[in-house]
Design a protein that fits this description.
heterodimer; A: 437 residues; alpha/beta; 8-stranded parallel beta barrel; 3-stranded antiparallel sheet; 14 helices; 14 strands; globular; B: 359 residues; 8-stranded parallel barrel; 11 helices; disordered N terminus
C-alpha cells in the first residue's frame, strides 16, 4: 500500500454464506431446517439484509461427492441452482447483494453473461459472480464438454471468460441500442449481439475464491472481491499486503479489490460459555464417521478398521485421487499427513481430535463485545476489508450475530447504520466500471 | 381428464412476452393479473438471440411475488448444458413450491450458433431429436433422487440414504450425463413440460415427453386432428393419453370493443397470418370461441398471447375469463397449489423407485 494511511476508519464489509454441503453444516442439530426449501434461503437473506450486509453468497455443486465409489452420505448433499434462487430472493429483498458461485469451466460466456446481466437488471444492480474453475474429470462427466482442463488452462480460460463477459456487458451503446460484438480468442470465438443493455451497476461484481499464486494473480487482475481463508491476524495481514501489492501491476488501486475471509462466529454470554459452545459445535461437525473419512481422503487408503478415538494410523499415505471424488483436494497429502501426525504426537490427540484441531477454520469466539472488538481490529490493522460469515446452521445461523454483534459494530462506528446506495458496488465502495465503448 | 359431470376442465394460459422490458415490475403486475383470473400458467418466451432477459430468471423473480399461477419459461436445448437446464428448472419448481414448467425449444439459426462458437446450425429434425434426449435425461435426473432420499438419520450419521440416489448413466447421440442431479427431486416430481407441437419436427418429442402440447392453427378441425394424433402417439409411447393436455395457441388482439368481431374473418374466428393464428375481436366473442372449441373436444384449452401486452391481458382476464367464470365454465379459484394440480395431471413416481419395485 502506498501513500499515507487515511485517518477515517476503513468501513467494514459483511457478507453471509448459505451453509453449504460439507461437514461444517450441522444438520443433526434440532434447530437445523431444510437446505433446499425456499423459506430457508428467504430467512437467511432477510436476516442478512436486516443486518445491512453487503451480500449473500451461494456456493455451487455440479456433482455429488463420492468416496470409495459410493455417493457420500454423511453431510448435507444436494442444493438448488444458485442463479435461480438468487432471482427469487431479489423479490424478497431490496438492497442485499446476491452472489452466485458459477463455474467458468463448464459454462459458456455468452449464456452466463446473459444470466448474470439478467439478475443484475431484475435486482436493480445487486448481482455478483464468484468465479470458480474445475480441473475435475469426475465433475466433467455431467457435461457436454466432458473431460477437464489442466490447472494452467483452467485459469487462462477463466480469465478470458471474465474478459469476454465484460465485453458483452459493455456491448450496447449508451443510447440503449444493441451493437454487434466479436470475440476471437484462444478459448472462445464468438460473435453476435447481446440481448440486454448495460446493467444497473455496469458489470455484476466479480468475486474470486482461491489462494494459489495463479488465483491471487487472477484476482488482482480481474476481481472486485477476493474470498480467502486467511483468518488469523498475521496470516491475514501477509495475504492482504501481498494481494493489494499485486494490483498496481494491472493499473488498479488498493481500494479496487476487497479482501474478505470466510469466518465463523460463536457467541456466548461469557467467554467461557462461547468457548464451550464452539467446542461442542466442532464435535458435532466432526462425527466419528466424518473423522475417518477425512483421514482417508488424506491417506488415500481405506482406514475403516481404525478407531476414531484411537491414535492416527502408522501406515504411510499414498496419493489416490480416485478414492474420494468431487471435492477440493488438500495440497500435498504426504506433507499434510506428516503435519497431522506431529500435531497428534505432540498433544496426544486421537484421530477425531486431530481432525477437529487441524481442520478448524479461523473463528471468532467470545462475547458479542469481544467479537465486535476483534472484527474491528482485523479490519483496522489491514488483515481484511471485511468478512464472509459461514454459519453452521440453516436457516437461523445468522440471527444471533445480526441481533447482538451488528449493533455493537455500529456503535463503534465500524459498520454502516443504513445502506447508502442501492447497488452492491455502492455497498462495497467500488466505482462503476468504465464503459469501454 | 373427465370431471364427475362428464365435462372436461378448461385450461387457460397466457404469454407474458413483451419487447425490451428488463426490469421486474411489468412482469410482476402481468403475472398477478393472470393469477387473479385463476389461469393455469403464464409463459415467457426466450431466445438467445433477441433482445430480452433470461426467461427462467424472470419467472424465478416472479415466484415469490405470486402464489398459485404456473410459471413456464422457454429454455432452449441446443447450446445449453442439459445438466444445468434440468437443475435450473428443478430449482424454479423449488422456489415456486411446485409451479414450474419448461417450454422446450431448439435454436435453429447460425446466428445463435455463433454466440457459442461450439457448433454450426443444424436442421430442425436433428435438433428436436437432441431436444428429446435432453427431455429424457432431465426426467431421469429429476428422478435420480427418490422422494425420500434425505433421511437425516442422526443415529447412523447419514444425511441421505445413498441407495435412493441414482446415477442416470445416460448416453445419447449428442452428449452423456452421469448423474445423479445435484438438486433433490422437485416438488412436482417432474416440472410440467410444454412443447409447441405445430411443427412436424417437434411432434414426436411432444407426444413422448410433453405434459402440455401447443398447437398453432386457426382451424378447429386441424386442432382436433393434431390433438387426436398426439394422443395416439403418446399412447404408442406407452403413455396414458389423458396425461397430455393439448392447447390451441392463438395471438389475441382484443382492442376492438366488446363484441366487434372483425368482419370477414369467419364471424370472429381466428385467421392465419404469417406470424401464426390471430384472433381479433372482443372479449365476449373470444369467450364464445373458447367455449365452442372446448365443448366440441377440439382442444383441452388455450394458450393466448396478447398482441398488446397490458391492454389485451386486462381484457382477457376482466372480460373473457370473467364471463367464462360467471357462466361456470372456468374455475374462480385454484383448488390445488401446484401447476400439475391446475392441469389435472398426476405427480409421477420416480422411474428408479418403479424399476426397483418391479424387479
Amino acid at each position: 500500500m502506498t501513500g499515507p494511511k487515511p485517518r477515517q476508519p476503513k468501513p467494514m464489509h459483511l457478507a453471509a454464506h448459505f451453509p453449504g454441503v460439507n461437514n461444517t453444516t450441522v444438520w443433526a442439530d434440532p434447530r437445523s431446517g431444510s437446505q433446499i426449501d425456499f423459506g430457508s434461503f428467504e430467512h437467511l437473506a432477510r436476516t442478512a439484509e436486516r443486518g445491512l450486509f453487503d451480500f449473500f453468497f451461494l456456493a455451487e455443486g455440479l456433482r455429488l461427492r463420492e468416496h470409495k465409489g459410493r455417493i457420500h452420505d454423511l453431510d448435507v448433499v444436494g442444493r438448488p441452482e444458485s442463479l435461480t434462487v438468487l432471482n427469487a430472493l431479489a423479490a424478497v429483498t431490496d438492497r442485499l447483494g446476491l452472489a452466485a458461485t458459477v463455474n467458468a469451466t463448464f459454462n459458456e460466456p455468452y449464456e452466463l453473461a446473459r444470466r448474470l446481466a439478467t439478475l443484475d437488471h431484475l435486482s436493480g444492480g445487486r448481482a455478483a459472480w464468484n468465479v470458480v474453475t474445475s480441473s475435475d474429470a469426475f465433475t466433467g462427466e455431467n457435461f457436454r464438454r466432458g473431460g477437464y482442463l489442466d490447472r494452467a488452462e483452467r485459469y487462462t480460460r477463466a480469465a478470458e471468460f471474465v474478459a469476454t463477459a465484460r465485453e458483452l456487458w459493455d456491448s450496447w451503446a449508451p443510447d440503449g441500442t444493441p451493437r454487434p460484438f466479436a470475440h476471437h480468442g484462444r478459448h472462445f470465438d464468438i460473435a453476435g449481439e447481446f440481448t440486454l443493455p448495460r446493467s444497473p451497476q455496469g458489470h455484476p461484481v466479480v468475486i474470486q475464491a482461491g489462494d494459489s499464486d495463479e488465483g491471487r494473480e487472477f484476482a488482482a487482475s480481474s476481481a472486485d472481491v477476493i474470498f480467502t481463508r486467511h483468518g488469523t491476524l498475521d496470516a491475514g495481514r501477509a495475504f492482504y499486503a501481498d494481494v493489494k501489492r499485486r494490483l498496481a501491476r494491472y493499473g488498479r488501486s488498493p481500494g479496487d479489490l476487497k479482501i474478505m475471509p470466510g469466518v465463523t462466529v460463536v457467541l456466548g454470554d461469557t467467554a467461557t460459555e462461547a468457548r464451550e459452545r464452539a467446542e461442542e459445535i466442532r464435535w458435532q461437525q466432526v462425527s466419528p464417521q466424518t473423522a475417518l473419512l477425512t483421514l482417508e481422503q488424506i491417506w488415500g487408503v481405506d482406514l475403516s478398521g481404525y478407531d476414531p478415538d484411537g491414535p492416527l494410523p502408522d501406515v504411510d499415505p499414498v496419493a489416490d485421487p480416485q478414492l474420494s471424488q468431487g471435492r477440493t483436494r488438500q495440497g500435498d497429502s504426504v506433507a499434510t499427513a506428516e503435519k497431522w501426525r506431529a500435531l497428534a504426537q505432540e498433544r496426544g490427540l486421537s484421530i477425531r481430535q486431530t481432525v477437529i484441531e487441524a481442520g478448524a477454520r479461523q473463528s471468532f469466539v467470545g462475547t458479542p463485545e469481544q467479537v465486535a472488538a476483534e472484527l474491528t481490529e482485523f479490519v483496522g490493522r489491514d488483515a481484511a476489508d471485511g468478512f464472509i460469515l459461514v454459519p453452521h446452521l440453516t436457516p437461523g445461523g445468522l440471527d444471533e450475530f445480526v441481533d447482538r454483534v451488528v449493533p455493537l459494530l455500529q456503535e463503534r462506528g465500524a459498520f454502516r447504520t443504513a445502506y447508502e446506495g442501492t447497488t452492491l458496488r455502492s455497498h462495497l465502495g467500488l466505482s462503476d466500471p468504465v464503459w469501454k465503448a | 381428464m373427465t370431471s364427475p359431470h362428464g365435462r372436461r376442465r378448461l385450461h387457460l394460459a397466457t404469454a407474458l412476452d413483451r419487447r425490451s422490458v428488463y426490469d421486474a415490475d411489468a412482469y410482476v403486475s402481468a403475472a398477478r393479473l393472470a393469477e387473479r383470473g385463476a389461469l393455469d400458467f403464464v409463459t415467457l418466451d426466450d431466445s438467445l438471440a433477441r433482445p430480452g432477459p433470461d426467461a427462467l430468471a424472470v419467472l424465478s423473480r416472479l415466484a415469490p411475488a405470486t402464489r398459485r399461477v404456473g410459471l413456464v419459461p422457454t429454455v432452449t436445448t441446443t447450446h445449453t448444458e442439459p445438466f444445468h437446464v434440468q437443475a435450473a428448472v428443478a430449482t424454479l419448481d423449488w422456489v415456486s413450491r411446485g409451479r414450474a414448467g419448461w417450454r422446450i425449444e431448439v435454436s435453429t439459426t447460425e446466428g445463435e450458433a455463433r454466440l457459442f462458437g461450439r457448433r454450426h446450425a443444424a436442421p430442425a429434425d436433428a435438433l428436436w431429436q437432441e431436444a428429446g434426449e435432453v427431455a429424457d435425461v432431465a426426467a431421469r435426473l429429476w428422478d435420480s433422487w427418490e422422494d425420500d432420499a434425505e433421511i437425516r438419520d442422526a443415529a447412523t450419521g447419514r444425511f441421505v440414504d445413498r441407495d435412493k440416489l441414482h446415477h442416470v448413466d445416460f448416453t445419447g447421440a449428442a452428449f452423456s450425463v452421469k448423474g445423479p442431479s445435484i438438486v433433490p427431486r422437485p416438488p412436482q416430481g417432474h416440472p410440467v413440460r410444454v412443447v409447441d407441437a405445430t411443427g412436424r419436427a417437434a411432434r414426436a418429442v411432444a407426444a413422448r415427453y410433453a405434459d402440455v402440447a401447443l398447437v398453432r392453427t386457426a382451424l378447429p378441425a386441424r386442432a382436433a386432428a393434431a390433438r387426436a394424433e398426439l394422443r395416439a402417439a403418446a399412447e404408442a409411447y406407452g403413455r396414458d393419453p389423458d396425461e397430455l393436455r393439448v392447447l390451441a395457441a392463438l395471438d389475441v388482439d382484443l382492442g376492438d370493443g366488446e363484441y366487434a368481431a372483425e368482419p370477414g374473418h369467419g364471424g370472429g374466428g381466428p385467421r392465419a397470418t404469417p406470424h401464426g393464428p390471430l384472433y381479433r375481436g372482443g372479449p365476449v366473442d373470444l369467450a364464445e370461441l373458447i367455449v365452442s372449441w372446448h365443448r366440441d373436444g377440439t382442444v383441452d384449452g388455450f394458450h393466448l398471447t396478447p398482441v398488446e401486452p397490458r391492454r389485451d391481458l386486462e381484457r382477457l382476464v376482466n372480460g373473457t375469463v370473467s364471463l367464462l367464470q360467471h357462466r361456470g365454465l372456468f374455475r374462480t379459484f385454484y383448488p390445488g397449489s401446484t401447476l400439475r394440480d391446475h392441469l389435472g395431471l398426476t405427480r409421477p413416481a420416480s422411474q428408479y423407485t418403479v424399476a426397483q419395485g418391479a424387479s
